[in-house]
């Protein structure tokens, strides 16, 4: 079949990346070209749960040591006169206190008066870029120390579909991806999320405000038709809630709905591999009975949650690497391709393989889960 | 329209019907007959008022005697309180429409039917797409209240369109009306001193200004555009944004208890809700209006935000009015600034 030849397994995207990825990835390359042999023998070493926890303890003791070096008098001063202390702190950091104050007051006024706009999906661009992303940026830079590769593959205009692996019990990877892409190309990534997000109080609200909409064909096409960068996590809850033992093994990629949306809109598909998200909340059990009672797809039990209560909800500070792959063009296939299930399955597999191989390559290069 | 045509407008005792009949009657070529069971509270202009009940077969006689050319059906009731209970509301909406359509089917003179439907036919659920087009079916079929009525009304209207292919049938699914003159469950809800809302949800609300609703109805009454169309302002506002504009504080209630709270509010005669409207104010919904715009060139003059501001301008603002917000912020700014300077 003609179309099938256009999209061979082991795409140029994979090879292009392997060239940059270095020697370790290169040695893996022969087995990828087969496309099907994902035997466990080629899975790169990732820390087992016990090793992960001992690494974590080392990290914690080190950071506690550095905390003790902060002079206690400075903390005392901050408590005695917080206003002055923060003003002088702002001065030393080179922030104009008055100007910052004016800006904050103006912003609050606008928000409290309701003088802002949301788009048809409920996306509140102002809230996202002024409150949500700055908070996440701290998390991405200081906590997860995200390393970005292949940012040149992100288009600066026109629409594209980012397809990423999904892991980490809570959809933190989506939030960090949004931050990283915004910082690289100044565009908001519009996520597609499962209906459970919108059924759950607060999560649905936050999701809509920060640009997520329901993962359905209609919304995907509407977003892609309006020149947006759209991100999708085809594994869904299967990927998000997989046990730690299955880390970095991609789950089934839905039914390929994301591919047909991209084909129909004739936009490129950009594979994204995220390393680090698996270790933030290592899932050891899913407590299905409890989850059913609460109406959740799983109830996360991690080494720290629910044992430590809210403290257990602090994500472990794993080291993240996000790699954007080369775009897979879909426009040359014609709009009719979306209705050809064989093409859709082939591209789905191609995207899945690319992400899986990139994940393995990145894991080989990562020294440890936390450094 | 060459010779004088007769247009029958139902539901003229209410604001939208009266304003539409008045606008239509300005046209010299049209003879406008306004119909309702109670005398109109608003001026009908040159339109003539006929007191008749659409639930009664006598409606057929009115249509035959007047030689009606076009019927514009606006006598649909969105909330049970205004109709005197849910069963009465259902009777007006469904039985009334059935009787009217039966009369239209029999009347040879009738060449056009325009029916007011509602965004409610799409239901509201967390599985909804961001915007409904006319071809999409609801993800959560409305089972109660106005939504169910609207779905049934549209079903009967489609039946008539099938049986009388010579009649141009237009159904307009209007968004919630919003504007200075509007008195609806949404405006009353937004006017509560403290607004109860489903905790953790911020509905997207899409509005239509009554002047735009009337313009759209006028357009499809004079031009022949058969089919079903969404009519709404293109943008959305969120519930929290609307409440801030109204200066209203809100209290979150768990979603499971929202129907109970709605019942309490209804029994206190504060706001008249039908059950399906709670979902719409929890999950929100919006319609895609591109089909109507591309077929008729109609563009609403008011955005949802402008329609809301039109309403806010004539409303009494709540305890979080912009003036209070401003003065509080100014006070906070003074304290923070002098505090920093004094110590600095």
Write the layout of secondary structure elements.
The complex is a heterodimer of chains A (371) and B (344).
Chain A: H1 2-6, H2 12-21, H3 23-34, H4 49-68, H5 72-80, H6 82-92, H7 97-113, H8 125-143, E1 147-149, E2 160-164, H9 172-185, E3 189-193, H10 195-199, H11 203-209, E4 213-214, H12 217-225, E5 229-232, H13 237-240, H14 257-265, E6 269-275, H15 288-294, E7 321-324, H16 341-365
Parallel strand pairs in A: 1-7, 2-5, 2-6, 3-4, 3-5
Antiparallel strand pairs in A: 6-7
Helix pairs in contact in A: 2-3, 2-16, 3-16, 5-6, 8-9, 12-14, 14-16
Chain B: E1 5-10, H1 15-25, E2 30-36, E3 48-51, H2 58-66, E4 70-73, H3 80-83, H4 86-106, E5 112-118, H5 145-163, E6 168-174, E7 176-177, H6 185-190, E8 195-198, E9 204-205, E10 207-208, H7 210-222, E11 227-231, E12 237-238, H8 239-246, E13 250-253, H9 258-267, H10 275-283, H11 290-296, H12 304-314, H13 322-343
Parallel strand pairs in B: 1-2, 1-4, 2-3, 4-5, 5-6, 6-11, 7-10, 8-13
Antiparallel strand pairs in B: 9-12
Brief summary:
The complex is a heterodimer of chains A (371) and B (344). Helix content of chain A is 49%, strand content 8%.
Annotation keywords:
heterodimer; A: 371 residues; alpha/beta; 7-stranded mixed β-sheet; 16 helices; B: 344 residues; 7-stranded parallel β-sheet; 13 helices; 13 strands; 44% helix; elongated
């Amino acid at each position: 079949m003609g179309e099938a030849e256009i999209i061979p397994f082991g795409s140029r995207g994979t090879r292009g990346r392997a060239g940059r990825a270095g020697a370790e990835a290169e040695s893996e390359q022969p087995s990828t070209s087969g496309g099907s042999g994902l035997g466990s023998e080629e899975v790169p070493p990732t820390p087992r749960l016990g090793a992960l926890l001992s690494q974590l303890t080392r990290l914690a003791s080190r950071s506690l040591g550095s905390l003790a070096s902060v002079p206690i008098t400075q903390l005392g001063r901050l408590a005695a006169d917080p206003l002055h202390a923060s003003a002088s702190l702002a001065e030393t950091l080179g922030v104009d206190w008055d100007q910052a104050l004016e800006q904050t007051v103006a912003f609050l006024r606008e928000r409290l008066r309701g003088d802002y706009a949301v788009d048809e999906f409920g996306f509140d661009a102002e809230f996202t870029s002024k409150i949500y992303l700055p908070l996440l940026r701290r998390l991405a830079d200081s906590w997860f120390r995200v390393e970005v590769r292949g940012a040149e593959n992100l288009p600066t205009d026109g629409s594209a579909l980012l397809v990423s692996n999904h892991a980490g019990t809570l959809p933190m990877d989506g939030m960090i991806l949004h931050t990283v892409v915004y910082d690289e190309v100044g565009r908001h990534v519009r996520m597609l999320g499962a209906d459970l997000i919108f059924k759950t109080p607060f999560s649905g609200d936050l999701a809509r405000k920060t640009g997520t909409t329901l993962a359905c064909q209609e919304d995907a096409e509407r977003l892609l038709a309006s020149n947006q960068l759209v991100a999708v996590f085809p594994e869904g809850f299967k990927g998000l809630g997989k046990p730690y033992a299955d880390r970095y093994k991609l789950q089934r990629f839905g039914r390929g709905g994301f591919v047909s949306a991209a084909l129909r809109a004739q936009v490129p598909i950009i594979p994204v591999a995220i390393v680090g998200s698996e270790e933030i909340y290592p899932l050891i059990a899913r407590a299905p009975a409890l989850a059913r009672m609460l109406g959740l797809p799983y109830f996360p039990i991690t080494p720290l949650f629910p044992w430590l209560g809210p403290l257990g909800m602090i994500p472990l500070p794993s080291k993240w690497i996000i790699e954007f792959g080369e775009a897979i063009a879909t426009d040359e296939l014609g709009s009719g391709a979306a209705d050809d299930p064989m093409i859709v399955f082939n591209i789905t597999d191609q995207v899945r393989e690319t992400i899986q191989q990139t994940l393995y390559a990145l894991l080989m290069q990562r020294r440890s889960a936390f450094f | 329209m060459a010779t004088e045509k007769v247009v029958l407008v139902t539901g003229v005792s209410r604001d939208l019907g009266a304003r539409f009949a008045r606008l239509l009657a300005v046209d010299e070529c049209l003879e406008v007959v306004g119909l309702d069971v109670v005398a109109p509270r608003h001026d009908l202009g040159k339109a003539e008022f006929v007191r008749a009940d659409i639930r009664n077969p006598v409606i057929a006689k009115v249509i035959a005697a007047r030689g009606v050319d076009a019927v514009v059906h606006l006598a649909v009731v969105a909330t049970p309180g205004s109709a005197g209970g849910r069963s009465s509301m259902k009777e007006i909406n469904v039985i009334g429409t059935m009787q009217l359509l039966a009369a239209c089917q029999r009347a040879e003179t009738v060449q056009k039917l325009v029916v007011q439907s509602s965004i409610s036919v799409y239901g509201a659920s967390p599985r909804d797409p961001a915007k409904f087009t006319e071809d999409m079916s609801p993800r959560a079929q409305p089972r109660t209240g106005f939504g169910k009525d609207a779905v049934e009304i549209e079903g009967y209207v489609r039946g008539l369109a099938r049986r009388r292919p010579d009649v141009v049938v237009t159904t307009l699914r209007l968004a919630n009306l919003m504007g200075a003159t509007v008195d609806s469950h949404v405006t009353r809800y937004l006017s509560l001193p403290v607004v109860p809302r489903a905790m953790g949800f911020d509905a997207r609300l899409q509005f239509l200004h009554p002047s735009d609703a009337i313009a759209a109805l006028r357009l499809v009454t004079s031009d022949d555009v058969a089919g079903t169309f969404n009519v709404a302002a293109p943008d959305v506002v969120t519930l929290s944004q609307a409440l801030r504009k109204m200066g209203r504080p809100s209290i979150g209630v768990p979603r499971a208890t929202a129907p109970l709270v709605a019942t309490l509010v209804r029994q206190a005669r504060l706001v008249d809700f039908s059950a399906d409207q709670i979902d719409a104010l929890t999950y929100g919904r919006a319609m895609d209006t591109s089909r109507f715009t591309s077929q008729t060139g109609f563009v609403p003059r008011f955005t949802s935000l402008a329609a809301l501001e039109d309403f806010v301008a004539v409303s009494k603002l709540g305890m979080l009015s912009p003036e209070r917000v401003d003065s509080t912020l100014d006070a906070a700014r003074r304290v923070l600034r002098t505090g920093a300077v004094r110590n600095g």
